[in-house]
Amino acid sequence: MGTFQVTIEVGDTNGARFEPLEAFVDTGATYLAVPSNILGALGIRPIERHPFSLADGTLVEYDVGVVSLRLEAGPFPSFVYSPTPIATHFWEQ
């Protein structure tokens, strides 16, 4: 597995609004991690709470939502979470 950096655009599920981001890509990752303030600004809402196992074995839970993701093509739907503990604060506004 490797990592590299790309420019992406993360948007609402209607594809009406997108925010550009410089992202590190982890080829072994399943979910997209996005700062909670960006998710809140796009109006992204959680659809479920999901457990994640950290590298040190710690089990945590984060809210998971869906965004539109643009890379070189798209947009494509993508699962997203925010690694910050205050993510639900933004999503509840």
Outline the secondary-structure elements.
Blueprint: E1 3-11, E2 18-26, E3 32-33, H1 36-42, E4 48-53, E5 59-70, E6 76-81, H2 87-91
Fill in the keyword field for this structure:
disordered C terminus; 2 helices; 93 residues; six-stranded mixed sheet; single chain; Cathepsin D, subunit A, domain 1; mainly beta
Number of helical segments with 4 or more residues: 2
CATH homologous superfamily descriptor: Acid Proteases
Beta content comes to: over 45%
What are the segments in which pLDDT stays under 50 over at least 5 consecutive residues? 85-93
Tally of distinct domains: 1
Percentage of residues in helical conformation:
10-25%
H and E order: EEEHEEEH
Q: From the alpha carbons, calculate the radius of gyration and give it in angstroms.
A: 13 Å
> Main beta sheet: strand number and arrangement?
6 strands, mixed
> Which fold name corresponds to the CATH topology?
Cathepsin D, subunit A, domain 1
N- to C-terminal distance: 37 Å
Which architecture name does CATH use?
Beta Barrel
Backbone shape: globular
Classified by CATH, the class is Mainly Beta
